[in-house]
Structures are given as C-alpha cells and as structure tokens.
Hints:
The complex is a heterodimer.
Chain A: E1 6-10, H1 15-18, E2 31-35, H2 43-50, E3 54-64, E4 67-74, E5 79-84, H3 93-122, H4 125-149, E6 156-160
Antiparallel strand pairs in A: 1-2, 1-3, 2-6, 3-4, 4-5
Chain B: E1 8-15, H1 25-33, E2 47-52, H2 64-67, E3 68-69, E4 72-81, H3 86-104, H4 111-128, E5 132-141, E6 146-150, H5 154-168, E7 172-174, H6 177-184, H7 188-196, E8 200-201, E9 210-211, H8 230-237, H9 242-253, H10 258-271, H11 276-288
Antiparallel strand pairs in B: 1-6, 1-7, 2-4, 3-4, 4-5, 5-6, 8-9
Helix pairs in contact in B: 3-4, 8-11, 10-11
Amino acid sequence: MLFDDFLVLxxxxxxxxxxxxxxxxxxxxxxxxxxxxxxxxxxxxxxALLRGKKLSRARLQVADGTRSWALVLDGxxxxxxxxxxxxxxxxxAREREKESLDALFALSDLLDHLYRLFLAERLSPRFRxxxxxxxxxxxxxxxxxxxxxxxxxxxxxxxxP
Amino acid sequence: MPVLKTRGSFRxxxxxxxxxxxxxPETFAALREQSFHAIDxxxxxxxxxxxxxxxxxxxxxxxxxxxxxxxxxxxxxRLDKKRVPGSLVxxxxxxxxxxxxEALGVEHLPKKKRQEIRQRVEADLLARALPSxxxxxVFIDTLRRIVLLQGTSDRLATTLAQLFQRTFGRGLRExxxxxxAERLESDPERQQYIERLGPLLLMPxxxxxxxxxxxxxxxxDGDAFRDDRRSRAALDRDSIDAExxxxxxxxxxxxxxxxxxxxxEDDANAGGFGAGIDAEDAADxxxxx
Lengths: 161, 289
C-alpha cells in the first residue's frame, strides 16, 4: 500500500475546550491539505499534528498481486472516495461486470485487512510503550526541521478554514 | 459499455441479523414489491424511490438473472423528485384568484378558497413537471453481509436504510471506524476496549496526551489497556464527573501542576517525547488523588 500523495489534517472542533487548550493554542485554520511531493514526509505534516490536527483523509494506492486500486480514505466515516478500480480484462460483458464487482469487494476486504493490522497495533500495550513515543519524536523532529527550513518544503500546502 | 459503475465514492454497511437467502423466492418477490414506481404522470407525488436493476432503470423489470452474481446482488436505488418553483405557483395562483374574484363579483376571496386555489395550481403544475432522476448503485454481498452504497450523502444513506429494512427486514449498520473495529475484532476484551476508546490527541510536552471524547463506560481494574486512556481513565477510576473535570482543567491552566509539567518538559528535553509521559502520569495520578 502506498500512502503518499494527498493528506488532509483536520482539527477537531471539540478539542480546544475539552482538552483544556487555551485560545493561544487554537489552530490557524481548521484544515491543512498537503498535496504531492510525499507530504507524509514533510515538516508541514509534523507541524499540523503538533498543532492538534489529526489525519482525516488520505489518498491510498492499494495493490494485490497484479491488481491495484486508488482511493481517498475518509478516516472519520471510513468512506471510500474517488475509488478507481483495476480495469476488467475479461472479453465477455457479463464476465467483465463480475470481475468489476469482485474487484470492488476485494478492495473492501483489503481495507479491512489493513485496518485489522492497525487495530492489532493500536490495541496492544506496545502502542503506548513504543508507538506513541516514536510518533512524538517524529513529530518533534519534523517540527524542528520546519523551523530550521522556515517551512520550505516540496509538498504543496493549503489552509482551508 | 459496462453497466456497473464501480468507480466513485462508497459508504459501507454491515447487514444486521440473519444472512439474506437469495435462493428463497420471497427474497426477489420482496425486491420487486419495493421496486421503483414512476411519478412522471402523477399529480400528487413529488418524490419516489425504490430498487431498479442497473440493466433496466425503469423499475418495471427487475430480473434475478440480471442482478444476481452468485451470493451477490447488484442493484440501484432510483430517486425521482419533482419540484415546482414557488414563484411559478404564486404567479399562476394570483391569476386564478383574480379570475375567481371577477367571476364571483367580490373584492376579496376567503382564506380557505385561496388555499384551495393554491393547492389546485400546485397539483396542476406538478403533474406537468418532469422529475429529476438520480441512480445510485448498491452492491450486496450476502455471505460477508456487506453492503456498498455508491454515494455519500446522509439523505441517500437514510433512504437506503429504510428501503433495505422494508425489503429484507434487516437493519444496516454503517461501517465507520468504531463499528468496523468491532466487526473485525473477535476478542471480547478488546471489543470492550474498542467501545471505550476515544480519539487520541497527541500534544508535545508539557501538554498531556488526552482522549477527548467523554468517557462513559466503567473502568475495569487490571485492564491491560487502561493506562492508554491517560487522564480520562484516571478520572474514571475515581468517578470524577464532567464538572470536576472542568475544575481539573482550570486548575491545570492556573498552574496547579506546574511542577509536574516542568518535570515533564525537562524529561522531554532530556530524552525526547516519550520521556515526558511518565511525568505526565505522575500529574494524572496527582489529579486522581
């Protein structure tokens, strides 16, 4: 699975009050959209996370054997947006329809499998012990990088209030 | 040209209750009963929705051999809507009222009469209006009990849920993050944990890691995952309610835990993000006490 073309990081409207954040902590905008140029590796992504935004949408490339799908996964609703399935290859019209249907449900199964892997990680004690600290270190490193480079990066960012 | 459209955006659902039996004759009888009926020539109905075959979107011919692929069904919801602009109704109603006043030789018509005229005009215009048509494909896997709906609007989702219930007598549960996790996770202890899990807000030290959805479930002592809930779990262990939480947040903002926060910051500066967590725990424990 590739996960690096389009990311949306969004602030939760309930977050400031419920998390005890002050007005100074409020986000410059509700949403950051990072496009192209490997956005998950950019300082902007780290800074947005540090500012309390969370990843809400991402474009994924999913491959299984010779088949591949492109889609935008909406993390809030788990909606599959802009799905582009592989082209069916069968010659018979009815067989092509069946192949398209199989491919759509195969994508559903693949996403379930990936989510199951995530859950295994998220629900294990290791998540707290190892994953959160490493995420934090990554965020801080990206944030420092952003400060040093003055925010210059190859990914395009747009702020959507 | 392919009839099935498997591109676009989809919402996913889990079919509740017993699996749908596609070999039972009543299944397709129910589908035909809930198939779409046109409102092109009806003056009273402004909206209509129902099942159609993607191969015959009129709704008149819903054939099993078209829509069934083994244990899967490929259907579409057709939604027709007629709309008559209010301004057009008003113009026609004013003309009718004037003609009525002149015929009766009166200066004013009673309110009831004016309402009757307006309703009649609206029905006449509705009968002449052409509906807007929307088709949304629906893919049902009866073995996996999964439904894929092409389209993401809430209104469409409600229409699907109602139509599905009327047709198959079963409810649909949208597979958003929580329900999907519950569907995929078979371990009861982990399922219980998922129900209680809120979004994780990651903030660098001296901020604490907090989960922002109010915690409503009971805490289980010795729960291997409990620590991950951070301050919410600490609060729950001592049954602190929302008001006390506000007090706690205020105290935090007023600097009551500055020492702990400073320690967390020092630790973080010395050893990175993860090092601050233990000090945050200390702050949480202090709050709980």
